[in-house]
Known about the structure:
Blueprint lengths: L1 H36 L9 E6 L10 E13 L4 E3 L2 E7 L4 E7 L4 E3 L9 E6 L3 E4 L6 E6 L3 E8 L10
Amino acid sequence: MKKxxxxxxxxxxxxxxxxxxxxxxxxxxxxxxAKALEPFPQAEVGMVRHVIELKKKSDESLYKVxxxxxxxxxVDCNHHTLMGKLEEKDLQGWGYTYYxxxxxxxxxxxxxxxxxxxxxxxxxxxxxxxxxxxxxxxVVYAPQGYEVKYRxxxxxxxxxxxxx
Length: 164
């Protein structure tokens, strides 16, 4: 019985130590993220700062990130695109890039006849493909009420062309 109690106390101590270590690591990561965002300006009135943090990859040159700004809107069965502009901006003095999406909420769409009621769907605006870099966050400013989604693209192995 004593052996069992000692084993259980040892396991309990290990669990407490691991959870304490995990919470310290989480706090360190939170501080690192906040530090990485310090050079970037705060969002202007009416805008929201969206941050994309990427996981480290062994060969990041094989990956790209597609930034997809948009908004959930009530639309019909046509294909809709949010009008607006995604602009790349330089963070003066740092050499970093951030992005700003501006839109007045208007959309353009195909003009098919629809016999279904409107439904809420994510309508995307202009997208942009950027390089994958896990060392820096991708910062995008968009109007309040808008979302910023992203997609990771991975290159396949090189292929050779045929000579004809």
